[in-house]
User: What shape does this take?
Amino acid sequence: MAARALVTGANGFVGAHVARALLERGREVRALARGASDLRALAAIDCEIVTGDLCDPAAVARAVAGCAEVYHVAADYRLWAPDAAPMYAANVGGTRNVIAAAVRAGVGRVVYTSTVGALGIGADGIGREDTPVSLGAMIGPYKRSKFIAEQAALEAARAGAPVVIVNPSTPIGALDFKPTPTGRVIVDFLNRRIPAYVATGLNLVCVEDVARGHVLAAERGRIGEKYILGGENLTLAALLARLGRIAGLPAPRIRVPWALAYGFALGAEAVARAITHRAPRASVVEVRMARKKMFFDSSKARAELGYAPAPIDEGLERAVKFFREIGAARAAA
Assistant: This one.
């Protein structure tokens, strides 16, 4: 009988690809999802779906039972949250619940999905696993909650839990139904809603490579270690130019000063809180994050895990095709 692996958040963007990568390796997959979750990303694969909330220790324990591996991918990933309490409960409390349940059940390996947002940026402008950083450097509740959760995972590993941590950068590709904040940028570009850009940068990676990196971390990663699962460092202007070539659309040429973008975000958040009650087009957290390029180095994962990401244009092409197929973005004129 094939080993069973639990994937929390398997109905989400990264989790759905982790589930597929595990099935390709011959594992049985159990997916933990909340009762009201959108399960479209799991529609075409053979996996067991169990219902439960990360904040319910009993439900988590039931999901973990009988599994040889646990991939804790689930997270509350929002860059604008009127109330941050549910985010901390899911990202921090949920992580502690999953690791505790895995230890009690004697699970052989736990892969915790952190984020490069919980890492520091070095003096050379590049972030690495060991770059010094503190909670005070984290911008917004998402990054702060993930930083605290990562510290909890590291503490558990030091206490003997079989935890390996992966830090994905910015995954892109198909099955981003929600979409994620990065997917929303692609959708907005395809719908001609990005007339200008700010001078920032990020590390982009094909989501399939992130998923394979999770499996490699379980197979080859060292307990208590972190591994950046990244791809290519690109400025936002370069990203939009590539999207333009792939999608057959013109890329914006106007660069917006940071102060102007910040003022726009303040206004957009005020409208969101008072009127729409939906995420604004640009949040203050997003604009603050944009002041620093988020460039990272995946050398450690390449050397220790055999991680080998594909060219990012492949992921961009899949993302463009996916968003157009589901009707989230219109086709080129």
